[in-house]
Amino acid sequence: MPDGTRTGVRLGVDVGSVRIGVARSDPAGLLATPVETLRRTAADDRVAAIADLAREHEAIEVVVGLPRSLSGAHGRAAEDVLAYATKLAQVVRPIPVRVVDERLTTVTAHQALSRSGRSGRTHRSVVDQVAAVLILQTALDTERGTGRPAGTLVEPAAGEGDEIR
Q1: Do residues 34 and 132 touch, judged by C-beta distance below 8 A?
Q2: Distance CA 12, CA 31 (A)
Q3: pLDDT in tens, 79-132
C-alpha cells in the first residue's frame, strides 16, 4: 500500500483481570471490528484461546493494550499485562505480539456505548470488545500515519512451553 501499511489481519486484545476483549482488523488493515469477550479465570488465562483466534483469522500480528497511568508510568495493571503479553508471545510465535498505550480506552468505550443508547448495566458484556476495537484501531491508524507498526514488540518468554499447534 502506498501509505506504508502492511496488509493482513491483526488481532487487538484488551486484557482485564476478569474479561479479555478481542477485536480484529480487515485484511487491508484499515478497520477494527469486535470479535468476542473471553472470560478469564485463575485456572484459564485464555492465552490458548487467543492463539486459536490468531491462527483462525490468519493474523499477522497481535496488538495488546498496555494500561499506563495518565503520567505514562507502569503500575501493577501494566506489569500484569506485560507478563500476559510475554506469555502470549511465546504461545502464538512466530506471530509477533506488540503492546500499545491504551490509556483511557475503557472509559472511552463506556462513553461510546452510552452515546449509542446502551444502558450501563449492559456495557459489561461488550465494553472489553469495544476497548479492544479502540486499541486496535489506534494501532492501525498509527501505522498508516507513520509507516511503521505501532507500539513495542514483545519478546517471547525464554524457556517457557512450546507454541500451541
Answers
A1: yes
A2: 11
A3: 999 999 999 999 999 999 999 998 655 555 555 655 655 555 555 667 889 899
